[in-house]
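Record Adenylosuccinate synthetase, 433 aa.
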Amino acid sequence: MERKLVILGAQWGDEGKGKIVDLLSEGYDITVRYQGGSNAGHTVIANGEKFILHLLPTGILHPHVVGVIAQGMVVDLDVLDQELEGLKERGIDYEGRLLISDRAHLVMPYHKLLDRLFEKKGGIGTTLRGIGPAYMFKFGRKGIRLADLDDEKRFYSLIEENVAFVRDICEKVFCENHDLEVELIFERTLERYSKYKEFVTDVCQYLLKTEKTLLFEGAQGTMLDVDIGTYPYVTSSNSSALGLSNGTGLSPKFFSDAYLIGVAKAYTTRVGGGPFPTELKNEEGDKLRDIGGEYGSTTGRPRRCGWLDLVALKYAVELNHFDGLILTKLDVLDSFDEVRVCVAYEYEGDRIETFPASLKVLESAKPVYKTLKGWKRDTKGAKDIKDLPAQAIEYIRFIEDFTGVPVIMLSTGPKREEFIWLKELPQIKVSSL
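=>
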């Protein structure tokens, strides 16, 4: 039976999806990245080595898995080159196991320049990797796709046109000059493209025709989705299930038999600006950050930390129609006497139980907490539910009851083997279970 699994972030990103996809892709033939770009940072510890993947699907670390970069991604060829060279240096052979959509758009040097200028003017805390401007050019019909590089004359004229456009923005809007050289960008891009041209293909047709098992790997998280997240403090793509069809070029009917899993931390974090109702700007927040090692894998920036926001999590569960949740970093809460979860917001005397669109409401909303007893026992590395204290199980059950979906797995540490399977499902195969 054909199997399709979708792994999505259920919060503001950084939920630990890399480890989960690495673990679960062992039981799949193909893993697909379909949105975002090198602003993602999926961290995996495999065989004692640490990998941080920005563009490549995490499943590429398994020797039998084909990694697919689909059309919804924006591809920085310099980053792709660095990642592939890094795999080669570690003895991981990707030949014949990587496919890149010819419809995927490129991140160009002028996108990174614009990203820095926009952020300098009053930004939202982006990764400065040019992702937003690349999508801006895509939807403004000024983007460059991988397919365009085969027509060198047209490719050169596109760069020339875009550099002139960016020059006007730099000089007339920001009163700054730039050092972009059309010839240099043209030659460097073609040099990178020539190294990986053999991997570029019609990914949509490949996915439509394959009879192999498929795992779709989302980047960022639902609350950063450009349409349903905390706009404008979001990423530039659909990082929820909304991105599946436009990111792959496949009909929604293609995913009708897919199993959708949301990955969430046992608490909440986010990077950059934007509303964060449960943020802890105190010793408890510092403790979560220090124990959890909450620093961005892409930027190194310290993450903002707070208690688990169940209002936001339930919103993600409902909009993505998750079949289940995977909970990560439960062990970070091991030393707390009490743990709190947000079950509603209070705004101007009113109780709000659904996640609001209004930025004004979110920025002023006060969390309504339910306090649960801490377990004060080490759960790190636990591999059986019998190893969990009763209070930790009570915490998990409360999350299940509130969101309406089961927690099917716990990640109890960064290593592949550190997890507990709480609900075995026929859609998911992990040979190491």
